[in-house]
Every structure is written in structure tokens, then in C-alpha cells.
Amino acid sequence: MKIIEHAEGFVAGAGLYHMPSKVYHADPAPDPSLSSSIAKVLITHSQEHAYVAHPRLGQAPDAERDPTRPMEIGTAAHKLILGHGADLVIIDAADYKGGAAKASRAAAYAAGDAPILRPDLEKAETLAEQVALRLARIEGCEGFQSAPAEVVAIARDVSGAWLRIMMDRVEIHADHAIIWDVKTGDQSAAPQTLGRRVENMGMEVQAAFYIHVLGLLFPHLQGRIVFRWIFIENDTPHGVCVAEADAAGLHIGDHKVALALTRWNKGMKSGTWAGYPNQIVRVEYPEWAQKRWLEREEIELAREVQSFDLNKSPWRPLDWEDAA
């Protein structure tokens, strides 16, 4: 597996690369490329939203961001776990309420570094230590620590679209490959919560997209590429859960990627990036919410309300009590 070192500008063509995060997010592909994050926008919003969000189409690469402390802990943990990423700038303060801390934070971001408060760094360090200890106990995770980190894959789809991904770690073997993605946060990593979390965040799109892109570069591995998440809790005891998408998730993910590619190619070819419909639409009330209400109505409320027809209410207004 040859990984090309790339410092700035556009790449010459398809391949695996190591590059600064800033260069990747500015989109270094030969032509504007589709990433999994833009694919999600195409699915959940519109072509217009995707155009505006894309660094080479509607948005400057250095768009303003509004980071939170959990995000900064995640960034620091990624750096400590993977050994790659922006340099950490430690800010000796308990929070960002003081002017000096705010200024140091802003200066770090302006320099392309990753600011982190001293107490948050201690949490990130503990988290990284726990990840190493816990992964060592999970069968199938032996190759994670030694696998190349933050590897960028740029490939051209059969449709002609350029695609790009940045993998936290990737193992490429003779007969299979494993893509690793580290997810930190304040959310629970309990196995029973992950299905909803994956669906809520559109993570099945990421999994399917990453597998597709790596398969374009390594056709002989298609059908033998596994995508794994490492879910990590920011707070003590820093629970860790390693997970893969099931067949249903990957099937839906594949179909969502196909939809995103279709919308992306239409926009790139026509130069027209459609927004929401120019017409009045009818809101589709969620089927699950309708079912939940009807069950409550049947079990509980039918004893209280004689009729749900508003034109057949048995009650007269209070000021009619003495009417003739």
C-alpha cells in the first residue's frame, strides 16, 4: 500500500495520500469532489445546500466554525489516539470565560492548531489510554494501533464523479481491508443505543461511501472491505464499543449514496443546483406518531372523551348555562 505525501494544492489523480486536514477539507481532487458529508447534505437537504457547503463551489475553505468543548476533547483524543492531526495548544484555564483564554483559543484556530483547556486535555489523555487498554481486549482489533492513520483516498467513480474520504485508520491486506473510524462524544456508546445513533447521524452513508471509494482504488477487494466504528464516551469510565453496520444498514447506505451521486452529477453537469420545491407541499405526519396517538386514544382517552368530532361536542360554552 503506497501512500503519497501531499502538502498543498491539487493531487495529480486517484490514490492514497497523507495530507494536512486543511488541505483535505479544501478539496484537493483534480475537479470538485463529493465527500460523505456533502453526500449527506444532498440526501437530507437539497442540491442548493450542498453547493453552498462545498469548499470549491459555494463556500470559502476557511469557513467560520463554532467549536464546543466536547468537540475539542474529541479532536485532542483523535490526535492522541491516532498520532496524527493538528498540533495541540494547551490553554491553562478552567473555561473560556476569561479574555486571555478566548484570545489564546482564537489565535490557535487561526494558526491551524487545536486549542484545548488543561482539564479537557487531562480528560482526552485518560480517554486515549482507556481506548488502547480496551481495544487490546477485543478480538479483531489487533491491527488498529499499527495501521496507517488519517489516510486520504481520492478516486473517480464509474459515473465520472471524483470522490474523496479521510480514514482515521485503514488496514489493507491481500484479501481484505478494514476501515476504522473513531467517534468520541458525550453520547452513550452502549450497544443498544447505536442503531438509533447511526440512523440519526447518517453514519450508514459514511460507511457505504467509504467502502465504495476504497473499492474503486482496490477492485479486487470489493465485497471484502469492512467499515468499523470505535464509539468512545468522553466521560468516566470512558466506555468503548466497536461496531459494524449490519446488512440492512449498508444496503440503505448504498442506496443513499446512489441518490447523492445522482444529484451531485446532475448539479455538476447542468450547473444548476436545485433548492426546495417552488410550490406548496403537504406535510406528511409521521406514521409512528400517528400510531402512538391512536393507541393512546383507544386505550386511555376513549373513556374520557365521548366524541372526537369537534362538531359534535356534548358540552355547551359556560356562558350558555342560563340561556333559554
As laid out across the biggest beta sheet, the strand order is: 1-2-5-6-7-8-9
Number of strands: 9
Mean pLDDT: 91
Radius of gyration: 25 Å
What is the beta-strand fraction? 15-25%
- What is the terminal-to-terminal distance? 93 Å
How are helices and strands ordered from N to C? Answer: EEHHHHEHEHEEEHHEEHH
Structure annotation, total helices: 10
Apparent shape: globular
Percent of residues in helices = 25-40%
Tell me the major beta sheet. 7 strands, mixed
CATH hierarchy class name of the largest domain: Alpha Beta
Notes on the protein architecture:
- The chain is 40% helix and 18% strand.
- With 324 residues, it is an alpha/beta fold.
- The chain folds into two domains: 268 residues, Lambda Exonuclease, Chain A (Alpha-Beta Complex), CATH 3.90.320.10; 34 residues, no CATH class.
- The strands form two sheets. A seven-stranded mixed sheet has the order 1-2-5-6-7-8-9.
- The mean pLDDT is 91.
